[in-house]
């Protein structure tokens, strides 16, 4: 065989490998697009339905996107609203509950996480295991006793009652997640501040806090989303329609006799978009918090 | 400064106990608190919340499951003990067994499906080019981020009998194909959310749709943490892709899988919101799972809160038994000591 023959054969083999590689890449990308469509389509369908005219919604045909987009549904949920209240009211209620949960929860979580990550003390291991076990208990199971407690405390029908419950539901995970952020701050920084004569509070506030702040933001957004989405407790602890949060208002909307899909989708969109935005912000940290320890690196 | 040595100790780097009750002069911190008190003070608010709002209700739930708690008791009359009556009634009730069956079958199916789909997508993400990977992550994030209530409502709209897109899509399939697959070609006006079986089909779809992105992203994080040298070595040794997957990827991802299985089991065992919306509240008793059954017992008239608590106890016990094994796993891998 001549040298030319060998190199031609090699070239053919090389080309085949290249072709196989291209085919593989094509297959992978096609699969990615299919998964993407499966994941995104329902959200897309929600948003487009919100902007379709009623004739385009109530049809047995497939109308991929609103050809004459209308804001009538969005306007209607704001002006007519649900159960006699503008959707604005429910958005505000949800925001109050979620922000209240975050504000109280962040302080408690930061204190708890600092204790666990910075100190060795008797009961520390038990506390960490307690945090884990408490997260395994289904919140739905605590519904009945918490309902009675909230009633007895006079917080039934009040957003404050929901805030208190949501703090309890989010706190174990918040401490669990935040402690890794606290532990990541080098201890030598605090020691240096102490040696320089800073008080414990100053050290905490001026040294530790700024460094833990990003972790605190991530944890807080997680708590915000949980409280914003919370449904079961909002359903049982709130009876007065004026105090409904978004999830309960949406469910009330759907349970009505004639289902106004355009308006419902407009309201759902209003509830979902802020969450998706927040989510994209903290997604990476959330995963590392949830599977911390199992994933190293 | 005099107390630099105790500062280091308070920080916890020294093995000596930080509780400084030696001699007549306990070491003082700049804030004036003895060192050993500080962590407990920091922990106090968290402990109060967890103790008062999670552990105490947990105890209450167990206590109530042995009591008769009706309308009068809610208004303040002390509840009387009924012994095991709630549990006896529960075991005799047919509804309990259908709820239990629905709960378990649903959990097994969805955990399996989410894990399989999530793992496949995670591996896919790992093999995609950077740009495609980001594109897909952003896409699946949309499904993950959608609130449970909204996702249930969206899918309910898509499965709507009259104008739902699913019935349109099934009608759009070629008749022979539809006939071959489902034994029918006409899906006009098909009501998906009346019958418990089809309610659960839709529910499975909703929960898998919302659940697989988290699994995928976690698996991706796990895959990224595996050293490329291992794969290189396997390739040099001539191992096939299949063998590499089973001999390297799976064993190294085992801890990740354990955690993911626990988390999805917990989440899928107590699905409430989506079922509540898809089944249209508490009227479709055949479609109950344990959460919905407990809720209905406790909160529809006349309220039987003791009974509801007994169902909640059963649910919690099942979950604790399943997850106990995995809590141990986490305790072993995490530094909780």
TrEMBL record, chain A:
Major subcellular location class: membrane
GO cellular component: plasma membrane
Membrane topology term: Multi-pass membrane protein
Presence of the UniProt keyword Membrane in the record: yes
Taxonomic superkingdom: Bacteria
Gene3D superfamilies the UniProt entry points to: MetI-like
Localization (cell): Cell membrane
Keywords attached to this entry: Cell membrane, Membrane, Transmembrane, Transmembrane helix, Transport
Domain ABC transmembrane type-1: 91-282
Transmembrane segments: 26-47, 95-116, 128-148, 160-182, 203-225, 261-282
InterPro entries: BP-dep_ABC_trans_perm, MetI-like, MetI-like_sf
Listed GO biological process terms: transmembrane transport
The family this protein is said to belong to: Belongs to the binding-protein-dependent transport system permease family.
Protein name (Swiss-Prot/TrEMBL): N,N'-diacetylchitobiose transport system permease protein
UniProtKB/TrEMBL annotation, chain B:
A GO BP entry: transmembrane transport
Record's bilayer topology term: Multi-pass membrane protein
Protein name: N,N'-diacetylchitobiose transport system permease protein
Annotated ABC transmembrane type-1 domain residues: 100-326
Family to which the UniProt record says this protein belongs: Belongs to the binding-protein-dependent transport system permease family.
Taxonomy, superkingdom: Bacteria
Region of interest called Disordered, as start-end residue ranges on this chain: 1-29
Localization terms from the record: Cell membrane
Gene3D superfamilies, per database record: MetI-like
Keywords of the record: Cell membrane, Membrane, Transmembrane, Transmembrane helix, Transport
Composition skew (Low complexity), residue ranges: 14-29
Claim: Transmembrane helix is one of the keywords in the record: yes
GO annotation, cellular component aspect: plasma membrane
Pfam families, alphabetized: BPD_transp_1
Entry keyword Transmembrane helix: yes
Range of residues in the leader sequence: none
Transmembrane region(s): 37-59, 104-128, 135-158, 197-223, 244-267, 305-327
Organism encoding this protein: Planomonospora venezuelensis
């Amino acid at each position: 065989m001549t040298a030319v023959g060998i190199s031609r054969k090699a070239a053919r083999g090389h080309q085949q490998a290249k072709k196989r590689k291209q085919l593989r890449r094509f297959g992978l990308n096609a699969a990615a697009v299919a998964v993407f469509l499966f994941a995104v389509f329902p959200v897309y369908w929600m948003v487009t339905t919100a902007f379709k005219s009623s004739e385009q919604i109530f049809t047995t045909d497939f109308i991929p996107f609103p050809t004459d987009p209308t804001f009538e549904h969005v306007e209607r949920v704001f002006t007519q609203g649900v159960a006699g209240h503008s959707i604005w009211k429910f958005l505000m209620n949800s925001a109050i509950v979620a922000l209240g949960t975050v504000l109280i929860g962040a302080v408690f979580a930061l204190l708890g996480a600092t204790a666990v990550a910075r100190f060795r003390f008797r009961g520390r291991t038990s506390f960490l295991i307690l945090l884990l076990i408490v997260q395994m208990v289904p919140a739905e199971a605590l519904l009945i006793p918490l309902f009675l407690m909230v009633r007895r405390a006079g917080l039934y029908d009040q957003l404050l009652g929901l805030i208190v419950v949501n703090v309890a539901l989010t706190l174990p995970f918040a401490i669990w997640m935040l402690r890794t952020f606290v532990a990541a701050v080098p201890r030598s920084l605090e020691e240096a501040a102490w040696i320089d004569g800073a008080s414990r509070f100053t050290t905490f506030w001026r040294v530790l806090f700024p460094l833990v702040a990003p972790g605190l933001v991530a944890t807080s957004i997680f708590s915000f989303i949980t409280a914003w989405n919370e449904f079961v407790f909002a359903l049982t602890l709130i009876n007065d329609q004026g105090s409904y949060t978004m999830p309960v208002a949406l469910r009330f909307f759907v349970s009505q006799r004639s289902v106004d899909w355009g308006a419902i989708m407009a309201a759902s969109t209003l509830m979902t978009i802020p969450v998706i935005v927040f989510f994209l912000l903290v997604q990476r940290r959330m995963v590392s918090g949830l599977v911390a320890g199992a994933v190293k690196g | 400064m005099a107390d630099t040595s105790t500062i280091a100790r308070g920080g916890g780097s020294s093995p000596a106990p930080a509780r400084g009750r030696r001699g007549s002069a306990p070491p003082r911190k700049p804030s004036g608190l003895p060192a050993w008190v500080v962590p407990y003070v920091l922990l106090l608010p968290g402990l109060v919340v967890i103790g008062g709002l999670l552990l105490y209700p947990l105890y209450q739930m167990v206590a109530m499951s042995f009591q008769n708690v009706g309308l009068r008791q809610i208004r303040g009359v002390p509840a009387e003990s009924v012994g095991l009556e709630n549990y006896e009634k529960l075991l005799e009730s047919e509804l309990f067994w259908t709820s239990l069956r629905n709960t378990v079958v649903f959990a097994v199916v969805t955990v399996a499906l989410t894990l399989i789909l999530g793992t496949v997508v995670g591996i896919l993400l790992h093999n995609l080019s950077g740009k495609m990977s980001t594109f897909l992550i952003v896409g699946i994030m949309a499904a993950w981020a959608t609130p449970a209530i909204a996702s249930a409502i969206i899918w309910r709209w898509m499965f709507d009998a009259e104008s739902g897109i699913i019935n349109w899509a099934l009608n759009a399939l070629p008749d022979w194909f539809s006939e071959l697959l489902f034994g029918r070609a006409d899906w006009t006006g098909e009501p998906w959310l009346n019958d418990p079986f089809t309610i659960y089909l839709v529910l499975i779809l909703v929960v898998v749709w919302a659940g697989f992105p988290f699994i995928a992203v976690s698996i991706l994080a796990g895959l990224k943490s595996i050293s490329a040298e291992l794969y290189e070595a396997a390739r040099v040794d001539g191992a096939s892709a299949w063998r590499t997957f089973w001999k390297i990827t799976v064993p190294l991802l085992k801890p990740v899988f354990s955690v993911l299985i626990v988390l999805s089991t917990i989440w899928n065992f107590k699905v409430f919101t989506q079922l509540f919306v898809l089944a249209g509240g508490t009227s479709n008793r055949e479609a109950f799972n344990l959460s919905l059954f407990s809720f209905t017992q406790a909160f529809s008239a006349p309220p039987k809160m003791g009974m509801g608590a007994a169902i909640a106890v059963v649910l919690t016990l099942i979950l604790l038994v399943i997850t106990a094994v995995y809590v141990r796993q986490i305790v072993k891998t995490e530094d909780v000591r």
